[in-house]
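User: Some background: our group keeps a shared notebook of sequences we're curious about, and every so often someone picks one and asks for a predicted structure to add to the entry. Today it's my turn. The entry only has the sequence so far, pasted here. Could you supply the structure so I can complete it?
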Amino acid sequence: MSATNVQEAPKKAVASNAIKFLFGGLSGMGATMVVQPLDLVKTRMQISGAGSGKKEYRSSLHCIQTIVGKEGPLALYQGIGAALLRQATYTTGRLGMYTYLNDLFRERFQRNPGITDSMAMGTIAGACGAFIGTPAEVALVRMTSDGRLPVAERRNYTNVANALTRITKEEGITALWRGSLPTVGRAMVVNMTQLASYSQFKTYFRHGPLKMEEGIKLHFCASMLSGLLTTITSMPLDIAKTRIQNMKMVDGKPEYRGTADVLLRVARQEGVFALWKGFTPYYCRLGPHTVLTFILLEQLNQGYNKYVLGVEKSTGL
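Assistant: Of course. Here's the predicted structure to add to the notebook entry:
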């Protein structure tokens, strides 16, 4: 038989890298629209007590009541522009990179990634996304915490573009990456835990005793457990990141010298468990955000594969 009569097997249709990054950003932005109030409460609680050690809020509910009472209900969505920009940069980068690395791994090794493989890919994806998203993160922290400051000390950013412009003009462009070390460190821990544990929990639920079918129920269960594990491991670094990004100069010197200084001072002045201050709103924000992000991402991927590429089944993350 001649070579011209031999037909090559058609290559499997796969989503382009641009689509993977686009879906990562869209899923994160959709989830943020739902959980932004909880992110604001988490930030306010983490900043409360900075310097003095005095608690401003008795609980998450008290924090919400205080914000609504003093600033109005719309204040719960303060900084939404910066939050969406953060998702458009950070989540686009991390989820797009993780999906890309996952697909590359399966193609090259012809098997699903193991726990160490997933952790390594999550760490790389988190570092890349965090560095890209740090400017939006700085703007978000400042905009969500502004309302708790005395009127004379407020920065009064009108929107995320105004925040980024003023920070650059007043403090220099490097201020946009203030706290980048704890931000990248936190992102590496978060993504190593979140993305790897989500993949592993999903594999366990599908192939373990429960034999769960691919679908929203499976994505929900894997996401909630992944969110809990991520909250426990990442909160101390998240508090350090928040306080460094929100700090002001005192007598020409920065309030904190670095991540270790924040962690030591919080533990010394407010107690070790203060490193997990705001655990409830953090998990209530991260849990649903993880669930919504992964469900939206899985549905976008499945819809694209089915209706655009004509592929009925997808392995997902």
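Suggested note for the entry: Residues 178-274 form one domain. Strands lie at 249-250, 253-254.
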